[in-house]
């Protein structure tokens, strides 16, 4: 479905921190599947010290640092910085990353989307039906993945 | 810039006595990759810098911004005479240093009413500590001493009247007892709440002494107060003793009570300190001699209480020894709640700082009138009145 959505849009991008996070869990079926998606392209990295500084600045704004997990939310922070450089839209279901990304000094409102909003774009494109969207929501909930549209202040679509 | 960044990593690593190969192994890099990063021949990745910083007990932003306030923190820690291992209290201080600019942007904190003074810790230090303690007592008045919640009352008094943030965080047993960020940029005292209330009260007064006497450090940390021979620590101990049990008050009350047990009971009730602290204070003021001091320490308050009861005198000589309670700081928390409302910062870090659940923090940030049915657009149209209302409720 993701491939279908992106077929008529700009090329999708993902970042090295997200790639690394998924690679660590490569033994899991879904993670291995994502790593095999050629259409996702080569993961993108922040290029300069200034961009790295912005990544770490954003990371500290999204989550309280944990010495045991210094990479927590690094993928979201990298994605925001790379999206800013590329003028792209950042897709996330992390509430704090979503909010901080909406700040005009980073991406701004309209430049951030939830995963659920992609479902509804697929619906508008005629790729999936509303009943499939409901099933996808249930599947993700069953896999213990909290979708942002279920959180306070957010809604589907 | 690459070379400079690599050099800074090498410098910090050397300061901690870590070999390049060892650091490379810890952060899962090859020795040659680490060498290339340090010599500026290879662009470092954000995730690599994050892991390296974690191993060096420093915030990655502090490495990237050598002139920032955050960069001054760990250096001060390593040059102090305390153990420099990372702990819960330090993780809060490091993060607050990283977001210090956001705090300053949103804070409604008044200027510090009592400006730190330059103290000569070697000459007339006792006299200076007394003068400073008297001056602070004049500003705070005695209101915080009434009732049993002296620790919490003193915390509020320092925040409201002196414009200094005080944060109580629960750290493990081997963590710091307390720390003082002495810089005017972020005047802050952090106390480990995992200690008895009388002890935490002394720690708070001790850190206040550090903060107000300034010094060259940005940060002063304390693991123990026992046998302080360092002049800076000696001064802070003297300040704490004089602040909690002012000489003038002890001299006055001594004249009012002919009975020693009643005198001690009155002083304990007034100050909230532990039995041991009081006994040492009475000795230091020349009210009891060394033999009597050791005798009183040995027999403890329960025995004295019992003996008094035998003589028909019912008094309590044991202050509440239960652990202190974690409490958020006043001004910093308020600033970060506003910053979260303005999407400068997420709910998660604010929730950690104010030590509330995610949901409670959301309520403080956005107000609790919202339901999940509201759209994001409606969510964004909250007026400033509601924000002020949420802010006014904090801390409760």
Q: What secondary-structure arrangement, pairings included, does this model have?
A:
The complex is a heterodimer of chains A (157) and B (396).
Chain A: H1 2-7, H2 16-24, H3 29-35, H4 49-62, H5 74-86, E1 90-91, H6 95-102, E2 112-113, H7 115-124, H8 130-142
Parallel strand pairs in A: 1-2
Helix pairs in contact in A: 2-5, 4-5
Chain B: H1 2-15, H2 20-26, H3 31-38, H4 46-55, H5 60-64, H6 69-79, H7 88-98, H8 100-106, H9 125-140, H10 150-162, E1 165-169, E2 178-181, E3 188-192, H11 197-213, E4 219-222, H12 231-244, H13 247-256, H14 260-271, H15 275-284, H16 290-310, H17 331-341, H18 347-354, H19 358-366, H20 376-379, H21 384-392
Parallel strand pairs in B: 1-3
Antiparallel strand pairs in B: 2-3, 2-4
Helix pairs in contact in B: 2-3, 6-7, 8-17, 9-12, 10-11, 11-12, 15-16, 17-18, 17-19, 18-19, 19-21
How many helices of chain B?
21
Instruction: Name the beta content range of chain A.
Output: under 5%
The level of helicity of chain B is 55-70%
- Biggest sheet of chain A: strands, sense, closure? 2 strands, parallel
Low-confidence stretches of chain B: 75-85, 369-384
Strand content of chain B: under 5%
Intertermini distance of chain B: 47 Å
Give the proportion of residues in helices of chain A.
40-55%
Shape of chain B: elongated
Task: Return the domain count of chain A.
Answer: 1
Q: In oligomeric terms, what are we looking at?
A: heterodimer
Number of helices of chain A: 8
Cα end-to-end separation of chain A:
16 Å
Which CATH architecture of the largest domain in chain B? Answer: Orthogonal Bundle
Shape of chain A: globular
How are the strands of the largest sheet of chain A arranged? 1-2
Rg of chain A, rounded, reads 16 Å
